[in-house]
């Protein structure tokens, strides 16, 4: 698979990189690592994401390579620019969000690089996927490890490190393999400073975010004897705290800190009126199965979906699905 991926990169000269909507540290880290790698090889590369680079990752992109998707302005003719369009950290076209339109319209050769579980491939000319990888960044790491002379640039190493840290939950999730620790150690050997990365990633929050977390926890529901924790955030909650959707980052992980909680779910109102659902599992309940019931997806222990209904109705349906899954995966 990596040989095919290397050949794909080699055979194109104007490569557009994008990721799923609301890209995370792995999507952005993977995109930036590839961007720097391709530029160093003399290729034209761009990164376009929707809606924008998350603010806690701005430090990772001092050159502002990541372009926020602007369909009526600079990206009016985006579909015509690339000869290859690579989607990283996603392998379903629908996850591109509004970038779907130029993606569909583009004559570029289309590919995805991903580690998410998914159904039969659709919409890509080529797929480079490995659900056993801890992060999409791990796939780029393996590509470089197989042939790129060391040391790699600090920009590439730091971007890969951030991707790995993000998707392993700072090496706390069950995907924190020995191989991913070795990869991280190699990146540290090449100049990454972990403490600095953690400072930038996690210790730069704004008061609005903690106020929002506090407000959300006031409404924490513990169901199924405390095995299922549910949080809800409305647009009114965001407004009351002066917060925005970026401030929801990592909120869904927090209830798993409670003893006995096996599944944590966050439901929140998106700007477009839809209800988004984030699901996390400690280790035994398959929340990907729950997300799929609503047309979503992700990983066994971390998935997401969206529902076009009221918050109350979404909450009722999600409760039903989660409770059924908990009962089937955790027999009494
Ligand atoms: Mn990922």
Which secondary structure elements does this structure contain, and how are they paired or packed?
Blueprint: H1 2-10, E1 14-19, H2 25-40, E2 44-49, E3 66-68, E4 84-88, H3 100-105, E5 109-114, E6 126-129, H4 136-145, H5 154-167, H6 178-189, H7 194-202, H8 207-218, E7 221-223, E8 228-233, H9 235-241, E9 263-269, E10 275-281, H10 287-293, E11 297-298, E12 302-307, H11 311-329
The protein binds manganese (II) ion.
Descriptive notes:
The chain is α/β, with parallel strands linked by helices and 332 residues long. It folds into 2 domains: 201 residues, inorganic pyrophosphatase (n-terminal core) (Alpha-Beta Complex), CATH 3.90.1640; 123 residues, Diaminopimelate Epimerase, Chain A, domain 1, CATH 3.10.310.30. The strands form 2 sheets. It has a 6-stranded parallel beta sheet with strand order 3-2-1-4-5-6, covered by helices on one side. It has a 6-stranded mixed beta sheet with strand order 7-8-9-10-12-11. Helix content is 36%, strand content 18%. The radius of gyration is 20 Å and the shape is globular. The longest helix has 19 residues. It has 11 helices and 12 strands. The site of manganese (II) ion has 6 residues, from loops. The site of manganese (II) ion (MN) has 6 residues, from loops.
